Amino acid sequence: MKNLIISSLFFAALVTSVYSQEIPIVYLQTQLQENTQQYTSAILENEIQGIYVEHVALTSKNGIVDSFKDGYKTIFLFVKGKGTVVAADSIYDIIPETILLPQALKNITINTAKNDTLQYLRISSKLTAQDLLDLNDFPDANTQNVYYAKFIDCKSYTEPIKSPNTVSRTILPNKYIPRIAMGTVQTTGPDRVGNHEHPMLEQLFLGLTDNNSVVYADEAQVNFPEYSVLHIPLGSSHAVSVEKDEVMYYVWMDFFRDKKGEEWLKTHNTDDDK
After folding, report:
1. What is the pLDDT of residues 79-138, one digit of tens each?
2. Residue 77 near residue 99, CB atoms below 8 Å
3. In contact, 78 and 97? CB cutoff 8 Å
4. Terminal CA-CA length for the chain
5. Distance between CA 203 and CA 51 in Å, rounded?
6. DSSP secondary structure, the chain, as one string
7. Distances from the Cα of 218 to the Cαs of 17, 264, 268, in angstroms?
8. DSSP-assigned beta bridge partners for residue 90
9. CA diameter of the chain
10. Per residue in 66-93, pLDDT tens?
11. CB count, 10 Å around CB of 232?
12. What is the CA radius of gyration of the chain?
């Protein structure tokens, strides 16, 4: 009887632990101190194995050179401010809500527009041995050329868990970096992204301009404002809601545990599927 009571208490504690998990969230520091020309902060460290996220803010009059280590792929998500990126012999205009992947380049130069502050996430993915093999099967144009896109120009898709009022876009298709895809979700409330689970992938959300929604994961919930980044607990049943006249607008970032998990992306319906 004593063993049964202990087992019951252990089970109850386990259940409580599972359902009381929090949703890790970081609020980006978008206001720099006076005379600060560059701010860099690692965020959500150790949340996803092999993924390293930094928030960078630049006001420097001189461009900074960003170099990349072998064995890693890097993604830049520019969310606030204007500037340019010089990559090899090309110059890319940067406005809020732009994505850029240097791919085969060893370095790029990032410049901030005059009297502005450029804010972005720098996301590095450590390549596994299998990733290195999979890269050989990707189109050369995807792995060798700079990938650059404004969110607004990216292809839209629909999904059963979202209302017809929701506009979703794929800002980074898979087959550019192994096991990674990204997109945006945008709508005005009242609206909701329905509950769903995906134990085959880790996921980060980045709140974009005017986003003011709520994220749920199992029994947990957290207010999700603009310029914040959160981690959806792995395998949780999660959803996002937005109240009347408020805006839901965020980037989802999918980090698949293996390439088989990318089958999940087939739930995204595009005009190409018709």
Report:
1. 999 999 999 999 999 999 999 999 999 999 999 999 999 999 999 999 999 999 999 999
2. yes
3. yes
4. 61
5. 11
6. -HHHHHHHHHHHHHHHHHHT----EEE---SPPTT--EEEEEESTTSSTTEEEEEEEE--SS-EEEE--TTEEEEEEEEES-EEEEETTEEEEE-SSEEEE-TT-SEEEEEEPTT--EEEEEEEEEPPHHHHHHHTTS-HHHHHSPEEEEGGGSPEEB-TTS-TT-EEEEEE-SSSSTTEEEEEEEEEBSEEEEEE--TTEEEEEEE-TTBEEEEEETTEEEEEETTEEEEEPTT--EEEEE-BT-EEEEEEEEEESSGGGGGGGGGSB-GGG-
7. 12, 20, 23
8. 87
9. 76
10. 999 999 999 999 999 999 999 999 999 9
11. 22
12. 20
Amino acid at 102: P
What domains lie within the chain, and their CATH numbers?
25-273 (2.60.120.10)
Cα(221)–Cα(70) distance, integer angstroms: 38
Q: Are 229 and 121 in contact (CB under 8 A)?
A: yes
- How far does CA 18 lie from the centroid of its chain? 24
Token readout for 173 is 């298709």
Q: What is the rounded CA–CA span in Å between residue 111 and residue 108?
A: 10
Q: Which two tokens stand for residue 266?
A: 């087939």
